């Protein structure tokens, strides 16, 4: 009997905890939940119980990492090329070097990955908010109606909970 009571309390409290999540708001400079600004790591930890949103956020995180890994060297190469061009004394010194030919494609690919990561992060937040709102909007609560029945049989008398 104690085990049944404990399991009932556990089921009801886990439902209350999952219903306590709030949607994530997107503002001009970042994402917020309950007034707290959320970084990418915090977004990942919040979305972990929601598998679809979590996988989208992981893909966004991977795109951000790859985009930064390409954009930083591209910036250094193009900056070095600008310094070289600014110090040129003759017209022949103004021809592009290998730094330009390597830096420009890296810059374009890195920027594309960063932009794609931003779109995937927005999609992950939208998926998370849809999941949280679906739980809050009685779709889940309407289907969860436990029934308590009094039973008597050969083994004895008791209560039966049907979930």
Written account of the structure:
This protein is of the alpha+beta class and about 160 residues long. It is built from five helices and five strands, in the order αβββααααββ. The protein has one domain. It is about 65% helix and about 15% strand. A hairpin with a 2-residue loop joins strand 2 and strand 3 (about 35-40). Mean pLDDT is about 80; it is low at about 10-20.
Number of helical segments with 4 or more residues: 5
Backbone CA Rg = 28 Å
Going by helix content, strand content and strand pairing, the class is: alpha+beta
Helices and strands, in order, run as HEEEHHHHEE
**Tally of separate domains:** 1
State the major sheet. 3 strands, antiparallel
Please report the distance between the alpha carbons of the first and last residues: 17 Å
- Level of helix content? 55-70%
* Number of extended strands: 5
For the biggest β-sheet, the strand order reads: 1-2-3
Mean pLDDT: 82
Low-pLDDT parts are: 10-20
Shape: rod-shaped
Percent strand: 5-15%
A few lines on this structure:
With 163 residues, the protein is of the alpha+beta class.
Helix-strand blueprint:
Blueprint: H1 2-19, E1 25-27, E2 30-33, E3 36-38, H2 40-47, H3 51-86, H4 98-136, H5 139-143, E4 147-152, E5 157-162
Antiparallel strand pairs: 1-2, 2-3, 4-5
Helix pairs in contact: 2-3, 3-4
Q: Which short descriptors sum up this protein?
A:
163 residues; alpha+beta; three-stranded antiparallel β-sheet; 5 helices; rod-shaped; signal
